[in-house]
């Protein structure tokens, strides 16, 4: 026993020593270390000219690690093969192995962003750039600007900015297949960007929310922004650049494409599309039973057309899907038996509980309605036994999926909407059961009024305009005014108390919605402005504001 104690103490001492070594001197008390690592030496030094090597070593004053290198490290011009940076564990040195063939007479910038951090506390060596040139000089010009979103109030983070030399070889199609000459990113919340170490010349400036991280434009996934005219990078000899360009990111509407149809139910086939469904015609061309018939309606939320048919057919159906000069042919093998069930009629109320004063009540159906009997529908206004029937106008929309009831609403009132059986009949002859929906409107003193005076002298505007009151994040349009000519005042009444935004859209083509842009057509998205402050409305408030509109 007396020999075991020293042995145990020795083992504990060794274990404690190894544990402390593994921690590499992590502090256990006192103030938190907030000092970033310091670069002691770079070999070859940053700023080296006539660079012809393949290896770079960075030495620091403490142990460092790298984080999110693939995201943070921006190399300009882009390299086809990402460099190897080692070690991946904590070390005082970082070795960079360049695997790509370097271009002659070119200035390269390796912008590490915040990827190099100290081992203990994660303090970043912020925005470190390593620069070298394969030629005799380091290019030293710069260019800066801002990125915003074309429709939303906040732009995406980490947007990639790209420059292509604007010369006789430049074509807009380059963005799909060829990487740019210079790249940088917006790595902060200010959405600003700076190109550094540029060569003098003219360039096409493009921004991408580059989902694939390949510096190529993929319209299906990426947002894009561009300046219509090329920029000129020149030596300003100490003078400021002048007005900063503002690029407006947008998602293109994809070119038309019909996808292979799928059987969504025993009596319904769904046709999905890229680029919208306007002008699309679906025609069955295979032999069918004599009593075969069908109807087509657009999905309310997606670029999809639903094809309802009866009676059920065996084996398969063949369709042509026509759009302008293009005709696609699809064969769909039909499912049978228990594998697929038919759609059954479901009718729901668009609203339940609160009915906004500025919205109309509607029934929504999952199958097109072919017959509606207004005599079997009543709108009762008032409480319980005091409720009285009021007149209404009924409108079935073009898809036959929504049935709207138009009636005069009053504040602080209760409504009961009753639909008797057989009031609505769907395409297959099914009818509704009894529907009884209770709704109420709010008191005027529980709501707010917002009045706006719009001053547009500083901006050349093309009417019509869309003036929208939206949710705080602008994801939902609450009320909208369609403006065909200037007015002294614009009023939004019966607004629920909330923090809101005001958005103005220049509706160039008069289609009552915002339209995106197209890069190959060099068409910018429709212009959008946001009232600078967020509007806060409270119950029983009447807020009046003046908006001095300015060019963005």
Describe this structure in words.
A hairpin with a 4-residue loop joins strand 4 and strand 5 (91-97). It is built from 3 helices and 43 strands. Helix content is 5%, strand content 42%. The strands form 11 sheets. Strands 1, 2, 4, 5 and 7 form a 5-stranded antiparallel β-sheet that branches. Strands 10, 11, 13, 14 and 15 form a 5-stranded antiparallel β-sheet that branches. The protein is globular. The protein folds into 5 domains: 39-133, Immunoglobulin-like, CATH 2.60.40.3710; 141-249, Immunoglobulin-like (Sandwich); 257-333, Immunoglobulin-like (Sandwich); 347-441, Sandwich (Immunoglobulin-like); 446-548, Immunoglobulin-like. With 552 residues, the chain is mainly β.
Low-confidence stretches: 1-6, 8-27
What is the quaternary state of this protein?
single chain
Q: Which CATH top level class of the largest domain fits?
A: Mainly Beta
CATH topology of the largest domain: Immunoglobulin-like
Helix content: under 10%
Rg measurement, Å: 33 Å
Overall average residue pLDDT: 91
* CATH architecture descriptor text of the largest domain: Sandwich
How many beta strands in the DSSP annotation? 43
What percentage of amino acids are in beta strands?
35-45%
Biggest pleated-sheet summary:
5 strands, antiparallel
Structural class designation: mainly beta
Number of domains: 5
User: How far is the N terminus from the C terminus?
Assistant: 85 Å
Number of helices: 3
Inertia-based shape: globular
